[in-house]
Specification:
The protein has 14 helices and 19 strands. With 473 residues, it is α/β, with parallel strands linked by helices. The strands form five sheets. A seven-stranded parallel β-sheet has the order 3-2-1-4-5-6-11, with helices on both faces. It is globular, with a radius of gyration of 23 Å. The chain starts with a strand and ends with a helix.
């Protein structure tokens, strides 16, 4: 079959596509940034990348029309909490208009459980998208999931941050809200097995794990898996705003995303029972089993996708990383260093391992201070880390940087700053003719930008000088 997969660079899409390719299907992926997606799928056969944006109806003309089925995995949870529901519905209407003029027979949509009488804006948007996608020209199959548990998922990483950082917690009352977590492996099984299943045409099912539990219970069971003792006290006085700040400072999420999540976490996510598990022969695993499986993936450094690599984890980049690939020359301040390289392979491995748990090779304390200051002003700080200890692709999050270009064979890595700055910043590592070039570029915005550069210049001299020396050791 020829299958259209939207959201191909997202958390679910990057895990679903290999399953479809293993079945021998041909995959078409409409992506907003083709250069970013090429890094993920450059070694894959039977996959076609098409640059298109479902927010722009005209851009969809480049997508082939001879498609048999489609997966709708677009979730436009923008950093602007006021507008993401508008974007989601616009994407859905544009997708529907496109799909009705193709040979698509089935569309499979992953939504959220929406059975509570009082839905958050986030969950209400999911429900509206389902209604918008319904069509007489093709069959719609909808799966509604609650909390998804897996290595790299936002819920898993947020709970991990909370449990591993706080032995004693004074928490908001929404920790007593009930939910039914489902493992990412089971989510993928539902999506995978539903393809071309005619008895699932024009149906909608809630999919969920075997346990009904509160977020507090999830935290405590997570702690048990990690062999940690944790004490939790919930109090009723935390407003959604205070809860969002609490979540923002304790975890690696952005404040605006934290606010959206907090609004959703006050809603019970309990699924309606059905025979879908029997139809698709799926026996969902328990929450503890899902957590244990996630940590096995982490220990093996085999995390395929992470929510932190989504642009919503910072908000500075919207759609295209390659827009920032040409580092400006004029009106900029630069810190330039170079060293002769004795062993290119060792130096490249060090560069490709920079950040995260490895750190930045010099002045770790200063980097942590800068990360804390960034967090105080609403930035990402150093909390995002990196998905893999030694692999980098364009679009990956790297502490408070974003990878713009990464080509190990050509010996070049380019990072763009997503920290809060009165300007824009790039950091480039490049090896040519046995010489390592390290260049920090800052394009200031107004007087504040210039004052900022001169105030940090003394620290830059020590930090960047020490960094290139240690990388080249």
């Amino acid at each position: 079959m020829k299958i259209l997969v939207t959201g191909a660079t997202g958390y679910i899409g990057k895990r679903l596509i290999p399953l479809l390719l293993n079945d021998g299907h041909t995959i078409v992926c409409p992506v907003r940034d083709k250069k970013r997606a090429q890094n993920y799928y450059k070694d894959q056969k039977n996959i076609t990348l098409v640059e298109a944006d479902f927010l722009s109806d005209a851009s969809l003309e480049s997508i082939p029309k001879d498609i048999d089925a489609a997966y709708y995995l677009i979730h436009s949870m923008s950093n602007s909490a006021k507008e993401f529901h508008v974007l989601e519905e616009k994407c859905a209407f544009n997708f529907k208009r496109f799909a009705e003029n193709t040979s698509i027979k089935q569309v499979i949509y992953l939504s959220g459980i929406t059975n509570d009488t009082k839905l958050s804006k986030h969950l209400l948007s999911r429900k509206n998208v389902e209604e918008a996608l319904a069509s007489k020209k093709y069959a719609l199959t909808t799966f509604k999931a609650g909390i998804i548990v897996g290595s790299g998922s936002s819920s898993f990483e947020i709970i991990r941050d909370i449990v591993e950082k706080l032995p004693f917690m004074i928490t908001p009352k929404w920790l007593n809200t009930k939910t039914q977590p489902l493992s990412i492996r089971d989510v993928l099984s539902f999506l995978h097995k539903a393809l071309d299943k005619k008895e699932l045409y024009n149906t909608s099912y809630d999919i969920f794990g075997p346990e009904i539990m509160t977020y507090k219970t999830m935290l405590l069971q997570f702690a048990e898996v990690r062999k940690l003792k944790r004490w939790i006290v919930t109090i009723p006085v935390m407003t959604p705003g205070l809860s969002s700040y609490w979540l923002y400072f304790v975890t690696s999420t952005s404040y605006k995303l934290a606010r959206t999540l907090v609004n959703s976490m006050g809603v019970e996510v309990i699924g309606n029972k059905s025979d879908i598990n029997k139809i698709l022969d799926i026996n969902p695993m328990s929450y503890k089993e899902a957590v244990e499986l996630a940590f096995k993936k982490i220990e093996q450094n085999s995390i395929i996708s992470s929510w932190k690599d989504s642009y919503i984890s910072s908000g500075k980049l919207k759609n295209y990383v390659h827009e920032f690939i040409n580092v400006p020359e004029y009106g900029c301040f630069k810190d330039f260093k170079k060293r002769k390289v004795k062993n290119k392979e060792i130096v490249l491995n060090k560069i490709w391992s920079i950040g995260g748990e490895t750190g930045w090779y010099y002045g770790t304390f200063l980097w942590k201070i800068r990360g804390f200051v960034d967090q105080i002003f609403g930035g990402a700080g150093l909390r995002r880390g990196r998905r893999h200890p030694s692999e980098l692709n364009a679009g990956d999050a790297l502490d408070f940087w974003r990878v713009i270009y990464a080509d190990k064979e050509k010996g070049k890595l380019l990072l763009y700053a997503e920290m809060i700055l009165p300007g824009e910043a790039w950091l480039e590592f490049r090896i040519e003719d046995g010489v390592l070039y390290q260049t920090a570029t800052f394009r200031p915005h107004g007087l504040a930008g210039r004052l900022y550069w001169y105030s940090v210049m003394p620290f830059h001299w020590f930090v960047f000088n020490g960094m290139i020396n240690n990388i080249n050791k």
